[in-house]
Design goal:
245 residues; TIM Barrel; eight-stranded parallel β-sheet; 8 helices
């Protein structure tokens, strides 16, 4: 994924951004007849310095997203913050699962049985558990990780058959296609919601309720499609005149 260098935003700007994003989430929720509290705002702090996370914590932000273990360890291990909830949203190599316990409560990018087993093993040896989402490549983007939607039922079935006690599968996640139009994005979000409903029903999983979808450019659209977790980076951590949206 391409990340453009950005000027770090000051704590005041970060606070301002968080308040604005929260207000927009509330408005989008109201427009679609939903409750704002059913939508979790994840501040994607990847590549951001520790000070930026501290500023967001001061603005009562609780959920944070990171996409590499190394970057995440530098922050989480230094902060030792008890209220922060950390979400791993990047591609996780099997051999990095051991770094999850004690740091992350959520993994959004499960896409293989092998990884599920590795994670379960790591969490088990730490006597912890992890909430997980399965990443689906709904737009069939060859540059993206995630399971093909046609392979999703089989993946869920094999994971459930393994009876992995330390991981709970709670829903689906997708990353919008770069450069897609709003209507293409909406179609992809609606498809993910339908997949979640179908899987929850056919596998009788009452707790399979989450939909992690929507980033800075499309989180309002994602909320209209039923998103329960929006992953917002640049709209929070980048000064406004530097953002493209
Ligand atoms: C970087 C990232 C985001 C946040 O993107 P923004 O456009 O900066 O809001 C969300 N999800 C994933 C998986 C990411 O890697």
């Amino acid at each position: 994924m391409v990340t453009t260098p950005t000027i770090p935003a000051s704590p005041a700007i970060i606070t301002d951004n968080i308040l604005r994003v929260r207000a927009q989430i509330s408005e989008a929720a109201a427009r679609s007849g939903r409750l704002a509290r059913d939508i979790r705002l994840i501040a994607v702090s990847k590549t951001q310095p520790l000070a930026a996370v501290q500023a967001a914590l001061s603005a009562n932000q609780e959920d944070f997203g990171e996409n590499t273990i190394q970057d995440a360890r530098n922050k989480i291990d230094h902060l030792q913050n008890k209220t922060a909830v950390w979400h791993f949203i990047g591609h996780l190599q099997n051999n990095k699962a051991k770094y999850l316990p004690g740091r992350f409560q959520w993994l959004h990018t499960l896409d293989s049985l092998e990884l599920a087993k590795k994670i379960n093993q790591s969490m088990s040896s730490a006597n912890q558990s992890l909430s997980t989402l399965i990443q689906v490549n709904v737009s069939n983007d060859p540059d993206k990780y995630g399971v093909d939607k046609n392979d999703l039922p089989e993946l869920i079935e094999t994971i459930l058959n393994e009876d992995l006690k330390q991981i709970q599968i709670k829903g689906l996640m997708t990353i919008g296609k770069l450069g897609a139009s709003q209507s293409e994005q909406k179609t992809a979000f609606d498809l993910l919601r339908e997949l979640r409903n179908k899987m929850a029903e056919s596998f009788e999983l009452p707790l399979f309720t989450e939909l992690s979808m929507g980033m800075s450019g499309d989180y309002l659209l994602a909320i209209e499609s039923g998103s329960t977790m929006v992953r917002v980076g640049s709209s929070i951590f980048v000064a406004r005149n530097k953002r493209t949206n």
